[in-house]
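Board notes (copied after class):
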Amino acid sequence: MTAATTDVGVGTRVAEAQRRAARLDPGLGVFLRRFDAEAAEAAAHLDEGPAEGLLHGVTLGIKDVIATREAPATCQSRVHDAQWWAGRDATAVARLRAAGAVPLGKTTLAEHALGRPDPALPFPVPRNPWDTDRFTGGSSSGSASGVAAGLFDVGLGTDTNGSIRIPAALCGVTGIKPTHGLVPADGARPLARTLDVVGPLARTVREAAAALAVMADAPAGAPAWRDDLRGVRIGVPRRALTESGQLTDDCGAAFETALTELRALGAETVDFDLPELYPLFAAQFVTLLAEAYELHGAGLRERWGDYGRPFRRTAVLGGLVGAPVYVHAQRVRAWGAENLRARMRGIDAIATPTWPTTAPRYDDAAALQHVSWLPGLWSAVGFPAIALPMGFGGDGLPLSLQLAGAPGTDFALAAVADAYQRSDDRHLRRPPEPDHGATPAAVAVPQGAPGKPETVQWLATSLRELGLSIDESEIVEFAGQWELTSMLFGFLPDLPA
C-alpha cells in the first residue's frame, strides 16, 4: 500500500497520480480541486527523510465536507462558509498527514452530503468509472470513484445514511463506516450530528483498516488478521431480505455465492431476524431530516434558490418534523441499538448486500430515487459496517457485500471482511478507462410524485410559517415526498414511558 514497500519514491508516485488525474478526471468528475503544488512539495519532503509513518506516501482524495489546510470545504454548494476551519486540517486529515499520507485534492459529492447531483450547479458531476453513464452512489461520490479509477490510494468520506458504503458498492471498492464516535468528526461539516461518521474507502480492507487505525488513533496493527473464518458466526436476515423484495436476481445470486464462500472459509451462517428494521428505518430518516434542517434552515430561508433542487427539496422537509416526533425517534434508536446489541452476542457479523442493485443510469430518474434499508439500519444505531466487492451483475457492474458488527468491533469485523476478500481477486479488477469521445448520459433531476392538492396547500401554509417563501409549483414537486415521509411516523413503535 505504501511507498515504503516499493523502490519508487513518493514524488514519483504522486507525479504519476497527478498525470493520471489530468488524463482521466475530465471524464470522471472526481476532483473539485486538486492540490498539485502542495502534494508535490509534501512528497519531496517525505522523500528527504526516512519512511517512518504507517501511511508513508499513501495518496488521499478527501470529500469536500472535510477541512484541509489547502482549501475551504465547499460541500459542493454555492451556499457555504469559506471561513469555516480555513487553513486548518480536520483531526482525521491531520492524523493521516502525520502518518505520511499525501492529500491530492478535494473530491466531489452530493450537495452538503444529501440527495443526488444537480447538473444545474456549477460543479463537476461525479461519474462511475465502470460506466460513465451510471451514478457513483452518494454522497462520498468522488472518493469512491477516484479509488476505483486509481487516482489515489485512499478516499476519505463521511457516512450518515450509507454515504461511504453506497458509493463503495456501486464503484466496486471497499468502504468502512466506523462505530459512531470512533473517528473524531471535528473539521467535518455535519449533516446530521448524531449520525455522521468519518471513514475510509480503499481498494482493499487492509488499506482501509490501516487508514481507519490512524484516524482513530488506534495502536499500529490494530486488526488481528485471520487466515480463515473458523469459529466465526454470521447472521443472515433472510426474512427481511425476502420481504423487502428489493434485491435484483443478480444481487441475490451473488449474495448466496458470498455466503457459500464464507462457509467454505469456516464460518457458520445462521438466520437472524430483524424486528427492529422498520422502526429503525423510520427513526433514521426522521433524525436525518430534522438534524439537516436544524443546520440548514436559516440558509434555506435566506438563499433558497442558491441551493440545488435535490438538496433543498429534501432538507426542507426536516422543518416539518415536530419536536415530539424527533424525540420519539431518538428513543426508538436507543431501543433498537440495545435490542441489537443483546441479540448479536455470539454473532460476529450480520451479512447483507450493501445495495440491492448495480449502479443506476443517470438518465433514469426513478432508479436514482431508489431507497433501501440495507445501509441506513446501521447508521441509525451507530454500529460499524463494511462494504466490499462480492462480484458483478449481468451488466458487468459491481455488486457489494455488507458486513456489520456490534459497536466497538470495527477491527475484528475488518479481519472477517479481509479473510473473505483475500479468498478471491475480484476486488482487484479495475474498470476500463473512460471513452473521452463519448457523450455521457444527461443527469435526470428526480421530480418526485405530485402530492394531493390538500397536501400542497398544507405545505404552502406550513412552510410560510417557517419563513420559507417557495413557489407553489415547486411545492407540488415534493409534496408526494412529504406524504411518504409522514407515513414513516407510523412505523415508530410505542415504547414504555
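Comment from the instructor: The domain at 11-272+347-428 is CATH 3.90.1300.10 (Amidase signature (AS) enzymes). The first helix runs from residue 10 to 28.
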